[in-house]
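Below: protein 1.
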Amino acid sequence: MQKRDHFASKIGFVLAAAGSAIGLGAIWKFPYMAGTNGGSVFVLLFIISTLLIGLPILLAEFLIGRRGQADAVTSLKKLAPGKNWFLIGWSGFIFSFIILSFYSVVGGWILSYLGRAILFQLSNNGESYYGELFASIISSPLEVIGAQALFMLLTVLIVKGGIEAGIERASRIMMPALFVFFIILVVRSLTLDGAWEGIEFMFVPDWSYFTANTMLLALGQAFFSLSVGVAGMMTYASYLPKEQRLGNSALSVSFLNIGISILSGLVIFPAVFALGYSPNEGPGLVFIILPAVFEQLPFGSIFLLVFLVLLLFATLTSSISMLEIVVSIGIKNAYDKRKRASWIYGLLIFLVGIPSALSFGVLSDFKIMGMTFFDFADFITSSIGLPLGALLISIFAGYVMPKPDSMDELQIKTSSYEIWYFLVRFVAPIAIIAVFVNKIVSLFM
């Protein structure tokens, strides 16, 4: 039996964990969620949710994972023997499976754009071209399914390589490159004529959007972008040596996630208003607006090609974390079965994701609770699965896990520990329950 793998360094772990967070959650989903929910108020609630609720739960996942030194199900069985808390791990398995099934569809969209960019088919086409192109791609059954399959193939190839040789090595290359290039894009977007209106949209509050629904969506976005609530960070932390400090790592991941989300908004929204688009374009916002921004740049086709490669990197760092959750639980301690399990689960996720891939074409008229397959998968994970998982994790860390064990694992100052303990025991559960119940009630009214 193979020995359990580990991250080789703290920076490798932080970049891998940040990569899990800073994927499509920050670059694709954050802009369109902010754009369809009033901009500034959503941004403010997202930051508050990340720091006061997401960060404490992220740290809770870290300490549970490292304490257990195993997959999420096994770790929870170790820490609460004879109890049913291990079901949190199985919940993470199910919802990671569902998330990746529709997430891989968006990864396929990126590959479709990237293929065209390599052939220099995305330059000098005019701004209206990209809206038509996006609609054409997502409605083409063969293209979306083929691109989704290719994206899942790339994900499987990384995950089957293990932690240090696969996930850590990929993250150390992908994440720094993405951050540097985003800074360049922000500078260009802010220099467009009319960009100031986009800045106001992001940072000047319109309090009419301050509703329970916006709060839940912002909370769901914080969980989605931090990858908490599905045991992903628990899984990564299980590969972490004892000597590495969890508090600093959690802060680094949280601030990197907020930073990239804000940078993504500063790329998108100034350009949206400068080029005369609406900020509520929805999921296609990144695919329609950003190429139009590159039209304004010298050597724009080259910049677009590089950006799509980096966007693919960011998307892969998130997808590999979700597949890793599924694979680690599936193989338990049989690490020699990693390669086979990666292929099997990758194939199953691809098959389950096909209806989501077809949601904008041949299955666009098929609805579940008034939503397409794609939107329904997004809803049950972001608005139900992730908040529910995060609630259970906060209760476990705050009320079930012995206080001396969590203090020993976190290795932080007593004052800092007490703040975390208060947030994870009271603030996080109350906030999650309040907005969660409100959302469920609103569905049946």
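Below: protein 2.
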Amino acid sequence: MVKIKAAVLILALMLVAGRAGAATLRIACGSAGVDQDICRVSANVWAEKTGNQIEFVNMPNDASETLTLYRQLLNSGSDQIDVMQIDAVWPGIFANQLIDLRPYSKGQEHQSFPSLVANDTVNGRLVAMPWFIDTGLLFYRKDLLEKYHLNVPTTWDELDAYASRIQRAERASGNEKMWGFVWQGRAYEGLSCDALEWISSYNGGDVIDDRGQVTVDNPAAARALDLAAKWVGSITPRAVLNYGEEDARGVFQAGNAVFMRNWPYVWSIANRSDSPVRGRVGIASLPKGGADGKSVGALGGWQLAVSRYSRNPKLAANLVMYLTSAEVQRKRAIQASFNPTIPSLYSDKGVRQANPYMVSLLPTLNAAVARPSAVTGSEYSEVSAQFWNAAHEVLAGHDHAANALAKLSVSLKRLAPNGVWQ
């Protein structure tokens, strides 16, 4: 099915190739929705300024499908996409198929969070530019916490207790659909993020450390996954095992969940004029794993990169620099709550008025935990798939965390060269 999609995509792109006149750049930026809409507006402004043309390539909503399509196009040496929006964990996967942007950046990358620039630099080459940054956050119903005289939970145990109390009381009051906590539990990349946050919050490590050592098999990591498994069917619907970001948002925004783990983009959508929870949503850092734990959000976000097979690499790089500029990032933050990768924008008056919570996000963004993509490089997709499948087995009640993580550790060491990632 994916091969058919790729073939159709390439055919569609070939039909627009060769248009006479100004240079035409083809950009894949976001799937359907506000992400794509605001990208189109900004890219078209660049086109008008430079006298060139833009063709927009629609990509799947699912990041895994997008990754597969990119791989097929780049592995075939296709020149049918010039500028690509890539996930934070993909620079290592595609490094050899992307151009080095440093000769074209004029130092613009130094405006962004250093951790993001480091993430986008592979073997000394700046293969992508940070576009917007994400981290996992706790969304909560302000009105319900006030109603039951509860504070924002600071530990997972508190969240469990508060969610259970409010869920029980709200159901007794007539809302039988109310759940305490929703998140991303489907076997996909989103679960890797959630599970990494739980494990790291309990000081259970980062699955694979930056020295290449597999560290996931430890009691703290097992404790974290066992706790999450207890939520399923209790404060969390069993359907969460098939939830992605939008599934969780749908339940929360319909007014049927007290707490939700999701990415910052939800803020602007939850506060639209037609949202049932408009004005009743709060945002906080994710809870700690107990008194000795820490609050951790997974480092996410998207970058812009230029294919090495582009016929107009210099022009494509110019487009990337415009789209990742402070000017455009400011507009994206104000209009659609995309978190800028440029720290100075968090003190911008317009950004702060549109997104009051963003200022408080800075410590969370600085402390965000990266998935082990840099150290595993081109094998990251397999590493993550093994991790999310192990976590899903525990959440579904098919395995105990200690056993699942022990098996995962053995498998990851077998996958690594000489048992250690370099």
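The longest strand covers residues 299-306.
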